[in-house]
Structure formats: C-alpha cells, structure tokens
Design a protein that fits this description.
With 259 residues, the chain is α/β, with parallel strands linked by helices. 41% of the residues lie in helices and 20% in strands.
C-alpha cells in the first residue's frame, strides 16, 4: 500500500478558460455532477485498496472529514512543484518509512478506486524513482471522443500525459539539485529542453524515438530512474481544463450515478 497526495491548489484567473465557471474560487471546488471536483478524486482514493493515507495539498478550506483516509490538509504553496514537495514532506512526517507516493491532480473526477489500484500494483512490480502515466490517443478518443486533447506523436505511439503518477519520496526530498533545475526550467522552454538534451528533443520533434527509448534517455539525464506507464484508463488523463471538458466529464459522471 502507498500514501497519496492530492494537488488542489490551482485557482483559474480571469481570462483563463474555466474562470467563467470558477469565478476566482479554487478549481478543485468546482461542482461537477453534484459534488466538488476534489470530492470525486478523494472518493476514488477512499475506494482504492492500495492507498492507506491521503494528504490534501492546497485546499485547507475543504472539509475533508468525510474522507476516511485524509490524514492532513496543508496550505497552498503557490506553484505545483512546491505543492508536490510540501505534500511529500508531510507524508514523511506522518510515515517516515514511506518509499513511494502517488501524486494525484484534483481535476480528474472520473477516476475510480480500481484504476488507482491498477496503477499501484503495476508500478510496484519494479523499483524506479518516477513512474509517469500516459494515455494513448486511441484509448482517450474511444472513451472521450470529443475531449480535444493535445497529443505528442512518437515513433510508436500518440499519447497525452496522465494526471496521476508515482514518485519515490527521496527523489523529492534529497535530490535538491534536480528539484531546483526542474523549478528553474518550469517556465522556460530552452531550459526545459536542456534538461533532457537537445539531441533527445530533436528525436522527439521528428518522431524518431519510441516511448521506451525516450524514457531510457531522459531519466539518466535527470539523474533518476523511471519509466512511462501506458494506462488502459482514459480517466487518468481526462482532466477538466476547459468548459467543453467540464460538460463532457459531467455528462459521464451523471450517467455513472444513474448506474
């Protein structure tokens, strides 16, 4: 079993796609199919057999008492990377023996407990620093044909990134050099490219590299071990970023409630 942290600090600003729906309130509290978005995610973690504790990051105003696994709720640190690090530190404060943690975005309300269990069981078959979930275009468009996601085309697959991943706690707490590089590069395309290497970027841009090859090249350059996990569950990557995605996911959740 692993602990999880739920990242819920985002607040859409005026001019951003979801602002007309959130009006300055946290995105995680946006009501969808009768519940705050974050409640759907926390319910999925409550259902998951492979999750034992949950730390909620960035949403101290949310009443988490209804969720049996939430052991702490901490303040928003502003940036996503800072929130992830803060959440991991809180996990280790509660359980110093925690070796990996599941990092979940609060904006994937279609997530289910069985999907979380699949991810934990799949990733814990090996011992990597980082497991990054990806969803193939075929899987996403079969499940959500009108999601209008952006995809990256590699030699062997077209994919989009998932919003639930697994990371080794020590990768966050002890590798300050890596973490500082990532933070410094978060808003600079050239710095991001330099992290993975311009030769790798070339291969990615011209679709001359497979998913496995990309992971084998990029991970050592970041001084971590890692692998991409191709999930059969589109829900892991179906985040609510735009109004049409809100409508799509809400219709799906309402249908789920009807059984």
């Amino acid at each position: 079993m692993l602990p999880a942290i739920v990242i819920a600090g985002g607040i859409p600003q005026e001019g951003e796609p979801l602002y007309p729906l959130t009006l300055g309130k946290p995105k995680a509290l946006l009501e969808i199919a009768g519940k705050p978005m974050v409640q759907w995610v926390l319910n999925a973690l409550d259902e998951a057999q492979e999750i034992d504790q949950v730390v909620l990051v960035g949403l101290p105003e949310y009443n988490s008492n209804q969720h049996k696994k939430v052991v702490a709720s901490i303040e928003n640190r502003g940036e996503m990377l800072a929130n992830i690090r803060s959440g991991v530190m809180k996990v280790l404060e509660i359980n110093p023996q925690a070796h990996h943690v599941v990092v979940v975005s609060s904006d994937i309300p279609a997530l289910k407990g069985e999907m979380v269990d699949w991810l934990v069981r799949t990733t814990m078959q090996t011992d990597e620093d980082l497991y990054y979930t990806v969803v193939s275009r075929d899987v996403m468009e079969r499940r959500y044909p009108n999601s209008k996601r952006s995809y990256t085309r590699l030699k062997d697959i077209e994919l989009c990134g998932g919003d639930i991943n697994v990371i080794r706690t020590l990768t966050v707490t002890s590798n300050d050099k890596l973490w500082n590089k990532i933070i410094a590069a978060r808003k600079n395309v050239l710095k991001q490219a330099s992290l993975v290497g311009y030769d790798t970027l070339f291969l990615l841009l011209f679709r001359r590299i497979t998913l496995d090859q990309a992971a084998q090249i990029v991970a050592p350059r970041l001084d971590v071990t890692g692998r991409a996990v191709v999930t059969p569950y589109a829900e892991m990557g179906m985040d609510v970023d735009k109004p049409h995605q809100f409508e799509l996911v809400q219709a799906d959740l309402l249908q789920r409630q009807k059984g």
